[in-house]
Amino acid sequence: MYEVFEHTADVGLRARATDLNELFAEAARALFSLILANPDSVRPVQEASIRIEGDQVEDLLFDWLAELLYRFDTNHLLFRDFHVAVDAAGLEATARGEPVDLGRHELEMELKAITYHGLTVRREGGGWLAEVIVDI
Predict the structure, then answer these.
(1) What tens digit of pLDDT does each residue of 21-48 get?
(2) How far is 111 from 83, CA to CA, in rounded Å?
(3) What is the per-residue pLDDT for 6?
(4) Which of 7, 24, 25, 47 might form a disulfide with 82, Cβ 3.0–4.6 angstroms?
(5) Low pLDDT (below 70) residues in the chain
(6) First CA to last CA distance, the chain
(7) Which domains, from first to last, does the chain contain?
């Protein structure tokens, strides 16, 4: 589950999940829900493998979302499906999606960057919570 919340000239993402792997996948889905008005229109026809090294979950979340945003900005790739594995050495993920097709994809918001401001990843209740602010 994820939600979007307003934050001054930025926008915030809040993701919740039962485990850390799904939390990172939810955060990625939330990111693309900002970029696209119709994220369900993305077909999972192209696959990208992503490996990020590190042992701090906040840094991994920042780097993960920044990498996805970079791939959108440089290669115009939209992602929809995410398989993420987080361990003590870092993150290994597969993202599936397709290039932007303006005939089907309604681009909604231009995102400039992921920020460290207010970035948090923590256990909450029986699951995990992540919050991140995105510069728009």
Answers:
(1) 999 999 999 999 999 999 999 999 999 9
(2) 23
(3) 67
(4) 25
(5) 6-9
(6) 22
(7) 2-135 (3.55.10.10)
